[in-house]
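Risk register update: the risk of archive-format incompatibility is retired. Evidence:
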Amino acid sequence: MRWPDARVAFALGLLSLVVLGSRTAVGDEPASVEIPVPSAAAIFRDPQLQKWWALDAIAPFEDKAPLWKHRDPALQRDLEAVLARLHLDDDVRRKRLSVALVDVTDVKHPRMAEVNGDVMMYAASLPKIAVLLAAFEMIATGQLEYDRKTRKLLEAMIRRSSNEATTLIMQKVGKENIARVLLSPRYRLYDPARGGGLWVGKDYAKKGLWKRDPLHNLSHGATAMQVARFYYLLETGNLVTPAHSEMMKKILEGSDLKHKFVAGLLYVAPGAKLLRKSGSWRNFHSDSALVRRGKKTYILVGLSNDKDGGQWMVDIAAAIDGMLRDRGQKNAVSGPGPERKHR
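Archived output:
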């Protein structure tokens, strides 16, 4: 489908904000003041993205992860019922919780459900997956050597969520290159038409602010649906190349952090295998995983803004896994996950 000219101009305009400048802010806390969308006169400041968008306007890049087209009404009802049983439906209404669930057991025919899937939130360390992707884009083109040191830094970034390792990788890759990858028409992991998405505009350190995201002014942000798209692209071998997708899968295995989704799944499915990245900062708690459990494979993403959000992730993972296990029963949402008390 051909993009309307206004949408192309708007997306390119967002890039001009990336290139031209940003507002100074203190720390990582999401700022409340919105950045104005720049004028179209400044859209040509990044030649590489200009070429990509111009090509996309003529011959659109195929969306390899059109998950919005695969919403499953029954799965949607079951997801909403699980969240209501956990007494999180009010938090969904208040947009303090976003969840995306994609059953990829049949990867060619995914089934998707979501609540607030296009609501962008501060996501702390979860967007380090965007740094991983940008690094492998450079590895694939020979701009970054994939030696033992680089591999160890990437593993520390993902498995231990090392801020120091992440900042070192970001300095090697460049924040501009990370933004290019996310905004590129090949991936569209940050898409203004979908409320934003994955964004990394600051080192994982006290200093190093580069650019906050153009729509919501976040330094490290995500939407549940764009994170789910990342994992779907990974599972289908469409991140960089199939070989590089497999290399990224190896790095995403074996998280050293045993909280949130990992803790919930250990309760109900101790044999499950996960590719996973989470994040926490103050009241912002998030988690994401590609889960293999028996014959079932699914993607689960949760973003929250609440002091209890870490426990929400535990409960959601356990209940969703139970629901998927029991979906053979009509409207089954029982699962073994613990119920939360009314708040």
